[in-house]
Amino acid sequence: MRECFEDSSATPAGGGRPVRVLMVALEGRHISSCRLPAAFAAAGAEVGALADADSLMFRSRHVTARFPLAQTPSARHLLADLERACAAFAPDLLVPCDERTLWFLDHCRAQGGRLGLAAFSPGLRACLTRSLGLLDTLPARTLKPLTQRRAREIGVRAPQDILTATPDAARAAARRIGFPVMVKRPRSCGGGGVRICRTPVELEAACALWLRPRSLWRRLKARLRGRDWMEPPPQLSVQPYIEGRLAVTCAAAIEGRTLGVLSAVAERRARDILPADVLAYIARPDLVAASAALVAAFGASGFVSFDFLIDGNDEAWLLECNARPTPILPFGARAGLDLVGVFLKALAEAPGGEGAGPALTVREETRVALFPQALIPGPADAALRGVWHGVPWDEPELLRALLVELRTARRSGARLTPPGSPAPEPPAPARSARSR
Q1: Homologous superfamily, domain 160-240
Q2: Are 188 and 174 in contact (CB under 8 A)?
Q3: What residue spans define the domains of the chain?
Q4: Is domain 3-131 given the CATH code 3.30.420.40 in the classification?
Q5: Rounded mean pLDDT for each run of 10 residues along the chain, 436 residues in total
Q6: 245-391 has the same fold as 160-240
Q7: pTM of the model
Q8: Which CATH number fits domain 245-391: 3.20.20.70, 3.40.50.1820, 3.90.1300.10, 3.30.470.20?
């Protein structure tokens, strides 16, 4: 099934066919990714999307070709949908829009050709390699402990971590590190699968939630139904708790060569484990250098994002990698760096990049309130009214859909966080982390 219409905003750069970009979103209600089509269309790309039939991505007027997903999360069906979309749209670039998409692609990379799952077709593999770089490094980009260990190997500061698979091992790790500790599932996103444990009681609660053994029947059923790729490893990474301020980056790269890096600090977060809803774009050479070093270590192409923590000594600690665009990307042009435009221009030029200068970064400090995330706690106060809000005024259908999400979240008292974490996040403990 294919729905297609022309969009005059996707004009070729310098004549000829525009770059075709296929957005892949396996999380239908992913708030931040639905803003990506506008950023790519503004840079001259033609945008297609593979997503759920009711996805927010399909509400964007900048999506010119829509490919609805199958109604099952079976890896076999999803891979068939992806192959069909690529055959019909012939993308030059594939952009994974959420963590679930990355986990699925890595599962297909590792298991393709076995257990009844087809291998990537030559055309799809070529597109993925062009879009993501070295596919064998996807685990190091999507599993937090592997990301941090790779960072330490190349000299990027990252917290000590102890990977545990049993409650006893987690208790021993916490005693060795000393409370408070951070416990994280190796594969999670949007604040899900992360807890600050200040006491042994809080650690026990996290272990009871995330280290519960799965029955053999449940594991077998998931494999037979092709859904085992959705299950996170039954492990916890135990790390020291570092007090500080969240900083985020998004790098654009081709074959490990960084073209530019957007960097920002969190102006506001609802809780320490949640993403920022107000960002301040700033130029920080240390964040640019660390991001570029990791991109080179991964041999990455496309867009790769990183979360850092700035401690009391103004030193940056790597927390995790998001091997995809994050909400920092669509609004970078306001801070003087249109990273999408820079990447698409480099993609259209001859490969190699000989003589390329240092990675570009933002030129001016700019504050952005993400919409609708920043308005969920309530109407904007005086401080928030002084910040530019990323409202899609030029996309009325998408705006209406986001207002529905906003009303729903306010009524339920929930946060609009990506639903990629396979297990629901429990309520925050009574003694939460101090405000950063």
Answers
A1: ATP-grasp fold, A domain (3.30.1490.20)
A2: no
A3: 3-131, 160-240, 245-391
A4: no
A5: 36 66 89 93 97 93 95 86 97 95 93 87 97 96 93 96 93 95 83 87 93 68 65 86 94 97 90 78 96 98 97 96 95 95 88 65 91 88 89 96 92 57 38 32
A6: no
A7: 0.87
A8: 3.30.470.20
